[in-house]
């Protein structure tokens, strides 16, 4: 069997590998095995990369369960726990992986969020822009069409998109874990309504008489150390959470009530059609300033959108958009400051509903970020030498315009922010607000402490050192929270989900039939119980839990398109053998040998 167009036969490639085996390094052998997709003895080998237990205990436990199922199906599956920085580079920048288990960014579950995740234009890009290398012309068309159409037509397009993804499996959704929090109510109340991934959520909190000492201090605990160590909203690597950057940086609009985007830094906006072109005129709130006292103007807004579209150094030919906000930036054709408070946007071919999503990016101060176009040097990052400091700086101290400002970072595990009294929430000359915005933030200082152990964070809340343990709290701490009279256990559905990601650039993962069988080796219901102790929802679509989910993809005890090849967490040998044979793969002696 030989390949055309000047390729080499598999037999010759193997012969060459045997000849040079004595002098080959382990790294070279790994690359060869990745290229061939199977081991020297013929068995298919796949490596599953994930974070170690101290960084994400869920991910490692998921990877181990998946590895056991793959082993039972004849695949030599190997778990490779990898340090966080190295894993982010290998998966999101250099694409050096077979499979990975990880958690997606915490973004609203909306159809257009799938554009950056799966459109083929992101195949070679760093970050969560199609790290799977997935390329499907039908999916590209559906992703583009859902931006243009509205009403029932859009619902039909999005339903077809979800069904196509469920069938072709660029990644497999493992489940949506619930966010677990431990809170106290002696100093602050209103935690049940507080969605703390946005400044809007903090407005729901109310200070009690006990917290009225000056200054009023809200103390939060997290296991996400990046929350206190890295304040760069544009960071090239995946951010687990954006709570602090959302507080430090305003956007033109904020998401209200789950899916409605309303003006925030913007005082108002008006959309209009000029022929086939969609445009919007955005008016900023008056008298806004950056945390360093400089005025915030329409020029800063125009700069922000130009910058996130291309952060590369000015003397380079390539374009390097901000991976995290590429979806929003790709909606904009042009942006122009008309005067100090007015910005005019021209959009690509999209609906007004989709266009509003462009208003959710953090607005940056031009006088700070224009200096960050210098080429960056960071080990392992290779995107043509065009990555600049903007994508890798820790950005400490941060200069934003949000309702809190940077105060100090006493240590690598503590961050202190202060209420920014010149923010429009805290002033009387900023116009009329909806009722939910009145009063501003209920604290003067915000102290965030990080620890690698969720148990330690929970204990700190129980003894009164913290007011709440808000991020990264695992199910192992639930009983401790419930037993503590001082604490309340709060859970809420998460927007992020765990995935088994496939590198579709590599054989045999480039074959969607192979990925479909891997998808059938996942008992998602078992994972929800065994790994998350029931604090997770199994799902067949990344839009599960929204009204975008078509009924045929609703979870009803098993994946509706790719049911598990077994039952109760146990793989059935006969079903597995039949599945491999029907897909054209050799399965002998309990080993998968290829095609």
TrEMBL record:
Domain of life assignment: Archaea
A single GO BP: peptide transport
SUPFAM superfamilies reported in the protein's UniProt record: Periplasmic binding protein-like II
Protein name: ABC transporter substrate-binding protein
Residue ranges annotated for the Solute-binding protein family domain, each copy included: 261-589
Molecular function per GO: peptide transmembrane transporter activity
Gene3D superfamilies reported for this sequence: Dipeptide-binding Protein, Domain 3, Periplasmic binding protein-like II
Source organism (scientific name): Halorientalis pallida
PROSITE patterns membership: PROKAR_LIPOPROTEIN, TAT
One of the Pfam families matching this protein, by short name: SBP_bac_5
């Amino acid at each position: 069997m030989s390949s055309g167009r000047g390729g080499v036969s598999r037999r010759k490639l193997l012969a060459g590998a045997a000849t040079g085996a004595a002098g080959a390094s382990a790294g070279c052998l790994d690359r060869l095995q990745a290229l061939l997709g199977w081991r020297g003895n013929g068995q298919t080998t796949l490596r599953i990369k994930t974070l170690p237990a101290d960084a994400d205990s869920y991910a490692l436990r998921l990877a181990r369960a998946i590895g056991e199922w793959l082993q039972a199906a004849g695949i030599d599956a190997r778990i490779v726990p990898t340090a966080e920085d190295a894993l982010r580079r290998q998966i999101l920048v250099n694409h050096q992986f077979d499979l990975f288990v990880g958690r997606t960014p915490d973004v609203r579950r909306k159809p257009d969020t799938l554009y950056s995740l799966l459109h083929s234009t992101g195949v070679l890009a760093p970050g969560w822009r199609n790290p799977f290398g997935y390329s499907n012309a039908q999916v590209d068309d559906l992703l583009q069409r859902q931006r243009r159409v509205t009403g029932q037509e859009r619902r039909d397009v999005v339903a077809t998109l979800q069904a196509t993804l469920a069938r072709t499996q660029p990644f497999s959704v493992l489940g949506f874990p619930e966010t677990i929090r431990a809170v106290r109510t002696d100093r602050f109340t209103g935690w049940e309504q507080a969605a703390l991934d946005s400044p809007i959520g903090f407005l729901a909190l109310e200070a009690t008489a006990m917290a009225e000492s000056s200054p009023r201090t809200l103390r939060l605990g997290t296991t996400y150390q990046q929350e206190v160590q890295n304040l760069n909203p544009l960071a090239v690597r995946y951010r687990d959470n954006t709570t602090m950057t959302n507080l430090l940086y305003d956007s033109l609009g904020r998401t209200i009530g789950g899916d409605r985007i309303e003006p925030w830094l913007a005082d108002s906006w008006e959309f209009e059609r000029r022929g086939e072109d969609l445009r919007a005129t955005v008016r900023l709130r008056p008298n806004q300033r950056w945390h360093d006292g400089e005025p915030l103007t329409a020029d800063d807004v125009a700069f922000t959108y130009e910058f996130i579209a291309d952060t590369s150094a000015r003397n380079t030919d390539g374009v390097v958009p901000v991976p995290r906000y590429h979806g929003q930036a790709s909606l904009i054709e042009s942006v122009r400051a008309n005067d100090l408070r007015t910005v005019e946007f021209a959009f690509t071919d999209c609906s007004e509903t989709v266009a509003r999503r462009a208003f959710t990016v953090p607005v940056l101060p031009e006088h700070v970020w224009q200096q960050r176009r210098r080429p960056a040097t960071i080990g392992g990052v290779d995107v043509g030498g065009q990555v600049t400091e903007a994508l890798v700086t820790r950005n400490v101290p941060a200069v934003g315009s949000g309702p809190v400002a940077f105060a100090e970072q006493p240590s690598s595990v503590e961050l202190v922010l202060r209420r920014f009294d010149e923010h429009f929430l805290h002033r009387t000359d900023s116009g009329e607000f909806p009722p939910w915005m009145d009063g501003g933030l209920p604290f003067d200082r915000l102290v965030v402490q990080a620890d690698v152990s969720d148990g330690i964070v929970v204990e700190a809340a129980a003894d009164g050192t913290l007011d709440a343990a808000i991020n990264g709290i695992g199910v192992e701490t639930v009983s401790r929270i419930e037993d503590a009279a001082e604490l309340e256990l709060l859970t809420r559905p998460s927007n992020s989900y765990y995935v088994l990601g496939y590198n579709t650039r590599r054989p045999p993962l480039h074959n969607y039939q192979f990925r479909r069988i891997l998808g059938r080796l996942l008992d998602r219901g078992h994972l929800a119980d065994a790994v998350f102790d029931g604090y997770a929802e199994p799902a067949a679509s990344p839009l599960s839990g929204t009204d975008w989910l078509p009924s045929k993809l609703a979870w009803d005890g098993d994946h509706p398109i790719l049911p598990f090849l077994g039952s109760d967490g146990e793989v059935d040998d006969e079903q597995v053998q039949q599945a491999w044979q029907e897909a054209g793969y050799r399965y002998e002696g309990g080993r998968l040998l290829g095609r």
